[in-house]
Amino acid sequence: MQKDDLKEKLIYINRITKVVKGGRRFAFSALVVAGNQSGKLGVAHAKAKQVTDAIKKATELAKRRLTHIPLKEGRTLHHDVVAKEGSGKVILRSAPKGTGIIASGAIRAVCEVTGIKDIVAKSLGSSNSHNVVRACRKGLLNQLSPKDIFSLRGKKKS
C-alpha cells in the first residue's frame, strides 16, 4: 500500500498553556484520523510547540497505526454496534445503499477516511472528540463479519 493513497483528516486542535516564571508557554495538540477509504483506519494524538508540527506528528502516527475494519459490500457495517470509551458513547447503525453518512463531525471524519459510505450514527454522553473517536474506533473493531462468526462456531461457509 502506498503512503500517497491515504486520506487524513484533522478533527481537533487544542492550545495548551503552561504558566512559568517568565509568563506563559503555549503548546498545541492535534487529533488526526487517517485511512485508505477501503477499510483501513488509524487514529493519533500528538503535541508540539507549533500547530503545523503537532498536525504533522499526529498524521505520521496515524499512518503508522492503521488497522483493518471489516466492511459489508465495502460501503457499510455488518451489523449495528454500540460502543463506549471513557464518557463517550456511540451508536453505529448499518444503512441501505444511498443513505450516505448521517453522523456528527468526529464520527463523520472517521467514516470518510475508513471508506464507510452508508451509515447512521449517534454520539451520546460526552461530546469530547477524543472519547467519541476512540469509542467509534472501538465499535468498528468490535463488529464481527460473517467470516469471523463462522470461524468462531467452527463451521464452514456454505
For the structure shown, list the relevant keywords.
29% helix; single chain; four-stranded antiparallel sheet; 158 residues; 8 strands; four-stranded mixed sheet; 37% strand; alpha+beta
Overall description:
The model has no long low-confidence stretch (mean pLDDT 92). The protein is built from 4 helices and 8 strands. It has helices at 51-64, 105-114, 129-142, 146-153, and strands at 7-20, 23-35, 40-48, 67-68, 81-85, 88-94, 101-102, 119-125. The chain is elongated, with a radius of gyration of 18 Å. The strands form 2 sheets. It has a 4-stranded antiparallel sheet with strand order 1-2-3-4, sandwiched between helices. A 4-stranded mixed sheet has the order 5-6-8-7.
Main sheet strand line-up:
1-2-3-4
How much is the average pLDDT? 92
Low-confidence segments = none
> What percent of the residues sit in helical stretches (DSSP H or I)?
25-40%
* Number of helical segments with 4 or more residues: 4
- Major pleated sheet: 4 strands, antiparallel
CA gyration radius, whole angstroms: 18 Å
Q: What is the rounded distance between the termini?
A: 32 Å
Helix/strand class: alpha+beta
Shape: elongated
Order of helices and strands: EEEHEEEEHEHH
